[in-house]
Amino acid sequence: MFTGIVETVGKILDISASGHNLSFWLEADITRELKVDQSMSHDGICLTVEAINESRYQVTAIEETIRKSNISEWQIGKTVNLERCMTLGGRLDGHIVQGHVDATGTCLSVTPENGSYLYRFSFPKPFNHLIIEKGSIAVSGTSLTCFDVGDGVFSVAIIPYTYQHTSISQIKPGDLVNLEFDVIGKYIARMQAFTVATKH
């Protein structure tokens, strides 16, 4: 479980394929604090630390993760947002994020706003019911508030700190991002659908 508050960023050093899986070696300033079997969010994707070698560590994505996220487009040198799982008793500064990517979205535009940045994204319309005005959404693992929500589109405003300390600054029009919709909204939508179905 995560909060969507990016802790630091990591750099991809190596990528290898094995069957349908993709393995990545990354370098990060928190590597020496990690342990094998630890869950970490990588641009919103929950991956397990498999090996550690000084300042580098390895994770692997399986076919399901590759199919639902943008991880197949990752390249050596790419910077990704990192967050270790939350601890009980800590502050929930963002929102509840599971690290389970629901879909990818496409960046439509990036507009500087005199110090902040306005990002516009499109997403698959079947997920329309899971996003609301001023609701929470995780974009590449970053907890953000969406607004100007339309049919398969939404906007987010990025403050200077987030722009400078996450991989958001690398996103440009046409890029795919990982999206995770609010888990509470997903449960509510599921319960409503179940209630309607049982009435018929």
UniProtKB/TrEMBL annotation:
An annotated GO BP: riboflavin biosynthetic process
Superkingdom, taxonomy of origin: Bacteria
PANTHER family, per the entry: RIBOFLAVIN SYNTHASE, RIBOFLAVIN SYNTHASE ALPHA CHAIN
CDD domains: Riboflavin_synthase_like
Organism the protein comes from: Arachidicoccus ginsenosidivorans
The EC number(s) this enzyme carries: 2.5.1.9
Function: Catalyzes the dismutation of two molecules of 6,7-dimethyl-8-ribityllumazine, resulting in the formation of riboflavin and 5-amino-6-(D-ribitylamino)uracil.
Sequence ranges of the Lumazine-binding repeats: 1-95, 96-192
Protein name: Riboflavin synthase
